[in-house]
Amino acid sequence: MTDASAPAPRRPGEQALATLGLAAPALSPADASAHSFPDGGLWRTEIPSVEGPESLVEVFKESDRLEVPVHRVSQGSGVWMLTDAEITEMVDACASRDIELCLFTGPRGTWDTGGSTRTDSGGAGLRARGHDALAGCVEDALRATSLGVKCLLVADEGVLWTLHGLRERGVLPEDTTFKVSALIGPVNPASYAVFERLGADSINIPSDLALAHFTEIRRVSRAPMDLYIEAPDDLGGYVRMYEAAELIRRGAPLYLKFGLSKSPGIYPFGAQLRETALSSARERVRRGRLVLDLLGRHGADGGMSPLGSRLPGALNRFPLTDDKD
Q1: pLDDT in tens, 70-125
Q2: What's the pLDDT band for 306 if we cut at 50, 70, 90?
Q3: Across the strands, what pairs with 230?
Q4: Cα–Cα distance between 254 and 154 in angstroms, integer?
Q5: Phi/psi of residue 278, each to 5°?
Q6: Burial level of 234, CB count in 10 A (0-12/13-18/19+)?
Q7: Pick from 269, 318, 314: which is nearest to 74 by CA?
């Protein structure tokens, strides 16, 4: 939680610029988020694109070496790209450190037989095409949770609503959380609120949203945000390290995601991409250290959730129907 007695964080270059008459305008308290995680924290950390047990080991080694706190690690290739033994190894390793493990669910349009995703318009993108793809995502969710995975990544509104319904009916464990992929992330407050009501427990927003957009979203929803402070190239390659403190102020509760630009894509991951996956896993942790150091230099590193925190708190949901005529 934020210490009310601590001095206010300073802004980048603040004092030096003021000597030249170039001081930034005062921040408006009205722009700040009124929300936090249920533990009182304003931000948590996430290392994305951790594609298997070997990459996870590298993340842990590097986070220990650089003293980077980690709340969550996420994987992008999908549950179906991992064996039961690999999932169990990742679950056990994360449990030993009280870190949340998030795995991506099932078939998605960009790997499907449909041609529209390869057109200039991108078609329906990652969304699940047809009943069978939806069923594949459900199968992934059932399998992953039976092996102890507590967080699932989704890239389709229908998949999200379906999994939320299964969670509400007890088919999936009630403490399962759903995270919306950056590749379908909402870009306005109404769509953000819809994802929350469909069952999302944290929602990736595109890294190019303006600061004012964060404030607009926070006026209608308290669902945690996931944000790439550095985005992969296929999400724009944006690097927003110097804005981290203001992003937290406006976007809390917020997961700081440490992505990596100028790095080859590794989805779907396999042994042919091993060295790239391992080196990029290590560098993502290093990028996290850079962000945390910057926050520290500006006096803005307070308010981190306690390690081991994972639940989002009470959120707004659409009512479920009984599906009867």
Answers
A1: 999 999 999 999 999 999 999 999 999 999 999 999 877 666 776 566 666 565 56
A2: very high
A3: 239, 258
A4: 18
A5: -70, -45
A6: exposed
A7: 269
Q: What is the pTM of this model?
A: 0.92
Give a three-class secondary structure readout of the chain. Answer: CCCCCCCCCCCCCHHHHHCCCCCCCCCCHHHCCCCCCCCCCCEEEEECCCCCHHHHHHHHHHHHHHCCCCCEEECCCCHHHCCHHHHHHHHHHHHHHCCEEEEECCCCHHHCCCCHHHCCCCCCCCCCCHHHHHHHHHHHHHHHHHCCCCEEEECCHHHHHHHHHHHHCCCCCCCCEEEECHHHCCCCHHHHHHHHHHCCCEEECCCCCCHHHHHHHHCCCCCCEEEEEECCHHHCCCECHHHHHHHHHHHCCEEEEECCCCCCCCCCCCHHHHHHHHHHHHHHHHHHHHHHHHHHHCCCCCCECCCCCCCCCCCCCCCCCCCCC
Own/partner pairs for 232-240, CB < 8 Å, 24+ apart? Answer: 232/49, 232/259, 232/260, 232/261, 232/263, 232/265, 233/261, 233/262, 233/263, 233/265, 234/265, 235/182, 235/183, 235/206, 235/207, 235/259, 236/206, 236/207, 236/208, 237/261, 237/262, 238/207, 238/208, 240/207
Matching residue, tokens 């909402």: 186
180 phi and psi, to 5 degrees?
A: -85, 130
Nearest Cα neighbor of 318 from 117, 157, 86, 81 is 157
